[in-house]
Structure formats: C-alpha cells, structure tokens
Amino acid sequence: MPEKSILELLPSYVQAAALVVAGGWAYWKFVLQRSNEPATDIDIDLKFVGRQDGQWIIEITSFLKNQSQVRLRYENFQLSVRYLLPEDKVEDGDERLVYQLNFPRTIDDRIKPKKRLFENVDYINPKQEFRHRYITSVPVEATFVWVQCKFFYALRRRVKVNSQRIFRVPERESDNLATPKS
Prior knowledge:
Shape: elongated
CATH architecture of the largest domain: Sandwich
Number of strands: 9
Radius of gyration: 25 Å
Number of helices: 1
CATH superfamily of the largest domain: ApaG domain
Distance between the termini: 71 Å
Strand content: 35-45%
Largest sheet: 6 strands, antiparallel
Structural class: alpha+beta
C-alpha cells in the first residue's frame, strides 16, 4: 500500500477511535454510574424549643443533600408529624404502614384536608446541602414523635426521597437533649 493512502486514511481512524472512546465514556458515565440521575440524602432533626399553652413548640429541620452530578428539581416537600399519648397502645400498623408501629395521632388533624409543606422548594444544585425548617407543636402529653419528610421530583411525580425518624419527648423542658446539627 502506498504511503500516501495510509496518511489519507489516518484521520478517519483517529475519528473512529475518538468516537469509540467518547461512546465508552458516555456509557460508563450515564448508564453504569447513572450520573444523570439525581442522588439525594435526607436527614431529619427535631428540637423541642419549649412549652406554651399545653403544647411543645418544636422545630423540625430537614437536611437535604444533592450527591449527584445534576441539578435536582423537586416539589411538594411534605412533612408529616405523628405522635403517641400515654394512653395509646404500642401496636404494629397494617400493610399500608409495612407493619411499622402505628402512630394514630397527627398534627395534620388541625389543618385537614391540607398538607404541611416546606417553603422555598424548587431545586438544589449538585453537591449542595440545604436545610428546610418547619415550626409547629405537639401536645405536652405526647411521649414520642414520628417525623416523615418526602418530596416528589418535578415532572416525574414519583416519590424519590422518603425519610423518617422517631424522637422521644422530654419529660421536662430541662431534659431537652435534642440539639440541632451543624
């Protein structure tokens, strides 16, 4: 084969190799690593601020962290707060609760049929952390508080993050062991 024809074909081989490398990188990045999909972490903290008018004033903080490489757009960031009173029995819930403990009382009874939502919900950039706070109350007689936070991806309308935690209610204001995270 003449030398000139090899030199003429070389750019085509370089282009083909570049396409194969780029395709392999895209497959690795977006299919195997799923870098184009949101990856979030959510944690919940509860601070018992004080007692007033037969209620514990509480501050709920939801820590949201975007661990992905893409901007996360979310909406309807819902908050559910349920609690037990001393007379409530400790019982498993039904299949709908996946047989977790049943907390029959909710602060949502005060605002039915509406849902409690965090404000300032829109998006969170890659590697960013954001704190959502909500101030509300539970009866002073409550013994345990169960907090659940969940949000929906914008446009997809499917639950992505659904986190929950349980907290013991202090017996006295001085027993408040809950401290906010830094």
